[in-house]
Write a structure and sequence with these properties.
The complex is a heterodimer of chains A (about 325) and B (about 425). By secondary structure, chain A is mainly beta. Chain A has one helix at about 5-25, and strands at about 55-60, 70-75, 75-80, 85-90, 95-100, 105-110, 115-120, 125, 135, 145-150, 155-160, 165-170, 175-180, 200, 210, 215-220, 225-230, 250, 260, 265-270, 275-280, 295-300, 305-310, 315-320. Chain B is mostly helical. In chain B, about 40% of the residues are buried. Chain B is globular, with a radius of gyration of 24 Å. Classes of the chains: A mainly beta (about 325), B mainly alpha (about 425). The interface between A and B is large, with 37 and 39 residues.
Chain lengths: ~325, ~425
């Protein structure tokens, strides 16, 4: 190669290097968002295909106490846990129980027998259907944060977000054992909970399902804590779950379908028992602004009860009848 | 050709190792199906402490081995193989971080920011190559630095840069060193990391701009050997100073120089001094030397003055200063919900007065820093000028201890001690 060409190449490359470095250096630190390729924009993902929405909002029940946290439904009764109150109403909105509780309440659940189980951060209160205290289960440790309660035969499961574990209790509230989601195997990640949302449910076939939100999956566990199956995939599309940790809450219908409630991109969806997306219940546009994730419950008739924490209402959704 | 093969093998080995290192995250990052452009972080994932110690041990072993290969064994091939290893390990596997060059900023920040403490690993990565340079020459550049290694492998047809151009371009590393210290000391930016042209290649995540920059350096490096090392690397300035005093620096010939001139054009970085017998200094030379001494403080003062006058411009790289300027010049931005920086500031609850006070303090740091930076550049320029007035008699071809990167090419060319010495000498004659 002739030397002159080499010199030309050298000069051109040298100038190019100079332009790139000086260009970036002189462009300054603060740039317009319009030029920011890393801007966190997900408005476009809020849009949902209307044909996917197969539920309609049938009713709204306004709540007269501030700060609703959790909801459960059974036999025409709706239990709502507030920061320091328990309220039970029937489907017509008539109040059955309204009692202060030394909170903060973090979860509420009806047992198959109709008793009320209230999680108060690190202890559990067992109340009769009339609201009379039957039992108090303690000694789970200071770091414990109970975020969900579920029942299988004589076993009660507690989701402990504080210690990232599921606790199994007998009918007296004594700890049988616990598991951390590793499936007793070294190298498995276990429960990853970047935020304090950790839900679990028992399906009609008596299978325990736990949300491993950091992995954006819903996992099925055996009684001794081994992972048997899982579903869920990370995606901004409607089929998957987004953000650091989702779904925030789940509920299971009589036919084994899963109802999920997500945070960030607030939306409620129904998945088939196989984990395949069935339809959308409520799209992000159905919620106000940056809403808190809505707790959900389902009744025997397939109605979905959405606790809209931001607006302070219970919103009842029914499947469209074609 | 051989170098090209090595370069290709290195590239793909690095790619494989990068894939393995990606799989070592604490837990898997969800692979979202979106077009979101994930920004590339300046520093890679944290590493176990024991693995950081392993990095230091490997650096130490590479430095010791290079010293032995350069000074005792005199093996250019060994040095080349070691540099390939360093490129794979410190470049592709460790993603170019931890890095001795960037260590300048960590050390500076430790000295100026009481809230920041340098890790022992980073400190050792900064200090060890300097200690080795003080005794053995720039063995770090030869085969421990991944930036040097990647440039070494692409040298194709190196041209010699004329001495005056070299001297002028040689001032850039001083400017870069001064700016990187000023920016680190004022907690503004780690510009050495920001403008590292090869980091995006090591991490396989270069932005288009940085890919062009890295590619340009590699293309340039085919004809101008090690352009980053010679005309940009701020750590090279420190290594140059240390290596100038090195006691056991690599020598071109193992014994007596036979003046065959074979090594004369072997050095791709123009770091071989030719033999020179200067006449005894005359009055004119002495006058030049005295002038250079007298001009030195003047250059320092002029440099300092220019540096201090540049402080307003230089301080704009600081986010606090630039935000304060923005809020003053464009107050309407307070109502722009899309301006992230302004909205973040407003959401922080800080008052405008606090922001302005903080910006004023930083700007004052830049004012004094500008004096020191300018003075330092004036001093560097003055010392280079002074060096031109000092003559040293030299009998043989010798490596320029400060600029020599100990790559060992010249040793390979030297026929002394080779089995076919007589044949080579016959051909030369």
């Amino acid at each position: 190669m002739k030397k002159i060409f080499i010199y030309i190449i050298v000069v051109v490359l040298g100038l190019l290097i100079l332009v790139i470095i000086l260009g970036d250096f002189m462009s300054g630190e603060i740039k317009d968002k319009a030029n920011n390729p890393y801007a966190y924009e997900f408005d476009e993902f809020k849009a949902v295909d209307p044909s996917m929405i197969k539920f309609k909002e049938a009713r709204r029940i306004g709540l007269n106490i501030e700060g609703p946290k959790a909801i459960d439904v059974k036999n025409d009764l709706i239990a709502i846990a507030y920061k320091d109150h328990l309220q039970v109403i029937d489907s017509s909105g008539l109040e059955r129980i309204n009692m202060p509780i030394k909170g903060p309440l973090t979860a509420v659940s009806f047992s198959p027998e109709g008793a009320l189980y209230l999680a108060c951060q690190n202890y559990v209160l067992v109340l009769s259907p009339e609201g009379k205290t039957i039992d108090r289960w303690e000694d789970f440790g200071e770091k414990t944060l109970i975020t969900a309660i579920a029942f299988k035969d004589t076993v009660t499961f507690l989701a402990d977000a504080g210690n990232r574990q599921v606790i199994r209790l007998n009918t007296k509230g004594e700890i049988l054992d616990s598991f951390d989601g590793t499936g007793r195997l070294d190298g498995n990640y276990g429960f990853i909970l970047p935020s304090p949302y950790f839900d679990l449910e028992v399906d009609p076939d008596n299978q325990l399902w736990v949300v491993n939100s950091g992995l954006l999956k819903v996992e099925n566990y055996t009684d001794d804590g081994a992972v048997r199956a899982f579903w869920g995939k990370p995606s901004f599309e409607i089929e998957g779950f987004t953000g650091c940790c989702n779904p925030a809450h789940i509920a299971i219908m009589e036919d084994g379908s899963f109802v999920t409630s997500e945070k960030g991109l607030t939306r409620i969806k129904v998945y088939k028992p196989s984990g395949e997306l069935d339809c959308v219940v409520a799209a992000p546009d159905d919620f106000e602004g940056d809403s808190e994730p809505a707790d959900i419950a389902v009744d025997e008739n397939g109605k979905i009860y959405v606790l809209d924490i931001t607006s302070g209402k219970i919103r009842i959704f029914e499947r469209n009848i074609i | 050709m051989k170098n090209n093969r090595i370069a290709i093998i290195t590239f793909f080995s690095g790619l494989l190792i990068s894939v393995v290192s990606f799989a070592q995250q604490r837990f898997p990052r969800p692979d979202f199906e979106s077009d979101y452009l994930v920004p590339s972080p300046l520093a890679p994932e944290p590493r176990w402490a024991s693995m950081e110690i392993l990095d230091v041990v490997i650096l130490l072993i590479v430095l010791v081995l290079t010293s032995w290969l350069a000074i005792k064994k005199r093996s250019r091939r060994g040095i080349l193989y070691l540099s390939v290893f360093a490129l794979i390990y410190f470049g592709f596997y460790r993603n170019g971080c931890i890095c001795s060059i960037g260590g300048i900023q960590n050390v500076t920040l430790t000295l100026f920011n009481p809230a920041y403490a340098i890790s022992l690993t980073a400190l050792l990565f900064f200090v060890l190559p300097l200690i080795f340079a003080l005794f053995m020459g720039r063995v770090f550049c030869a085969s421990a630095c991944p930036l040097g290694a990647i440039q070494e492998l692409v040298i194709l047809k190196p041209i010699s840069i004329p001495s005056p151009v070299r001297k002028v371009l040689g001032l850039i590393p001083y400017l870069y060193l001064g700016l990187s210290i000023l920016y680190a000391a004022t907690n503004t930016d780690f510009i050495i990391c920001r403008y590292d042209p090869f980091i995006g290649i090591f991490r396989m995540d270069a932005s288009f701009e940085m890919l062009i920059l890295g590619g340009s350096f590699l293309l340039l490096g085919m004809f101008v050997a090690r352009p980053y090392c010679r005309f940009l690397c701020p750590y090279g300035v420190l290594l140059n100073w240390m290596s100038s005093f090195s006691k056991w620096h690599l020598s071109i010939t193992p014994s007596e120089c036979v003046d065959c001139k074979l090594c004369a054009h072997s050095c791709p970085v123009d770091a071989i001094n030719k033999p020179v017998i200067e006449p005894v200094s005359n009055r004119k030379d002495i006058n030049k030397f005295i002038l250079s001494i007298l001009i030195l403080p003047v250059l320092v003062l002029i440099g300092g003055y220019i540096g201090s006058k540049s402080h307003i411009y230089l301080s704009r790289a600081n986010t606090t200063v630039s935000l304060a300027e923005l809020m003053i010049t464009q107050p309407e931005l307070k109502n722009d919900p899309d301006h992230i920086d302004v909205q973040t500031f407003l959401a922080s609850g800080k008052t405008m007065e606090t922001l302005l006070e903080e910006a004023a303090v930083i700007r004052s740091q830049f004012y004094y820093g500008g004096w020191i930076l300018g003075g330092f550049l004036g001093l560097a320029f003055g010392l280079i000028f002074m060096g031109k007035t000092i003559y040293r008699n030299r009998k043989d071809y010798e490596p320029d201890k400060g600029n020599c990167v100990s790559c060992g090419r010249c040793m390979d060319y030297c026929p002394v001690g080779k089995p076919d010495f007589d044949e080579i000498m016959k051909q030369i004659k």
